[in-house]
Amino acid sequence: xxAKIIDGNKIAEEIKFKVKSELTVLKENNKNTxxxxxxxxxxxxxxxxxxxxxxKASCEEIGIEYNLKQLDNSITENDLINETQKICKDPxxxxxxxxxPLPPQINAKKVQMLISPDKDVEGISPIxxxxxxxxxxxxxxxxxxxxxxxxxxxxxxxxxKGKEVVIVGxxxxxxxxxxxxxxxxxxxxxxxxxxHIASKELSYxxxxxxxxxxxxxxxxxxxxxxxxxxxxxxxVGINRVPLKDENGNPVIDxxxxxxxxxxxxxxxxxxxxxxxxxxTPVPGGTGAVxxxxxxxxxxxLYKTQVNS
Length: 308
Ligand code: NAP
Hints:
The strands form 3 sheets. The chain has a 6-stranded parallel β-sheet. A 3-stranded parallel β-sheet has the order 3-2-4, with helices on both faces. Helix content is 37%, strand content 16%. It has 10 helices and 11 strands.
């Protein structure tokens, strides 16, 4: 059996199309305002530079203004807090994203928690996260990666209600919010189990999952024999590993003399694809959807701001 591939790029395009259509009408009816996303970057980390470039392109493609506020790597925590609060109070700003990583003198969580819920485009403020606990309240925004996981599962058309779901990894941006979303009667009512570093016999859990979600950041963690036949497998992990030739030797880049790298998930795709019913590839799976959810969250914030 060969699993159906969940095409993250296609899902992302569909979400972007819907967001752009709604945004165009909203902008037309509210000519005195425009949707603006402000990204705060401290220092100039190469990884966050790539994210910023992609975010900017995605925003501009659908008519959102993207402003980068670049701050010096030596900024103090207090100064960053003041800057963030100033941007939060600016009525022309629709949403704020604090780019990671931050330098060691900054407590990232402390600063993130200061972003007001109505400008929290990443859906990670305590109020927005807290709303996930209520079955009868749909949060205005929610963590982008967790929503991306839900979109990937829903794209299969399979029923989620009552399903045995195993989530590997319990971070605040993926594992925990996905668990709450799956429990919610507004959303789905599945039966989730959450595994983490201290879970005994990981494969005991993963093997009984009708839906398996893996968000750890360890290449090769989930092998084919840990997956139930026909399961929906959502691989959130993003790992850079050396590219190997057919003999298993690293492929060397002629220009740099360094090993060439490739991006893989946490699941051994070549094994899993023969067992699962559906699977997300890496790249081209959840990661592709996550950026479009950021735009969807910004639309939700903009809608609330123009209607208030
Ligand atoms: P994180 O905060 O480091 O969380 C990783 C989680 O995995 C923790 O809960 C950790 O448990 C658990 N864990 C570690 N080793 C484990 C093991 N051997 N068995 C079971 N659980 C284990 O990471 P994150 O921010 O959630 O990101 C996870 C992965 O997703 C990374 O590869 C990241 O790059 C990727 N990511 C992808 C997207 C996307 O859009 N696709 C977005 C964000 C992140 P403990 O806390 O108990 O140690």
